[in-house]
# Entry
Amino acid sequence: MVEPRHFRFSLATFNLHAGIDGWGRPFDVVAACRAIDADVLVLQECWSPDSGPGTAKAVGSALGYDVFEHELARGRRGGTDPRADHRWIGPFSWFGSSHSLYLDSERPLSRSVTRRRRFREAEPGSWGLAVLSRIPVHHEEVIDLGRLGPDRVRRAALVLGVGSDDRALTVVGTHMAHLTYGSPVHFGKLGRILASTVGTGPAALAGDMNLWGPPLGVLLPGWRRAVKGRTWPAWRPHSQLDHILVRGSVTVASGAVLPAAGSDHRPVRAVLTVP
# Structure
């Protein structure tokens, strides 16, 4: 009897926090993604300044990925705060003095924020989602999830068909809203759309879900968690917000939460096989 061949590849997800820490200090995003070393890499909070190429394109160019991006919000990225200390972030101020990221997509920021010097000197650009692949991509689609009332971001999922005709897999990357914003509405919509488009075929869904693992099983029936481990906050993680989920004939060969890499989230990586 001839054993069936398997398509084996690595998939990872990493929230970049726009390539800076909470004080606005940049970290080496390319080096962090090189250490992750995934065949397909889902990135959240990618930053693309108006003045030049963004973080996802820099990673793709340096590491040999094809890059697929989707803008979720417009905003500004702050420079290094002169008060920066050894911590990843300082005391938070609702008035904007401690912010390193300002998102102003569909719900305007308050004047108490926009009139501050730190905001005015921040770099304008776009904040979004990307999926990078070293595996051939034969299909790309964006699922628009819309914006929840309290959220500043119009959420979406980026869907790629990767592999060849006889070894095809659907990879979905996303960055979901917080539970307090009503994210179950988006999970329900995403689950229904994927059920009709992907069905029971082999698929993987990865991203910052802003939600713990057990509720995901309720909100996304039919999907299985590939990795279990704490991912946030990176310096002393107590919760898993970043997930890789699989369905269909996909099996998990290995999976792990990786060490902190500069962001407030830790990367998650899994090796998957598809017959």
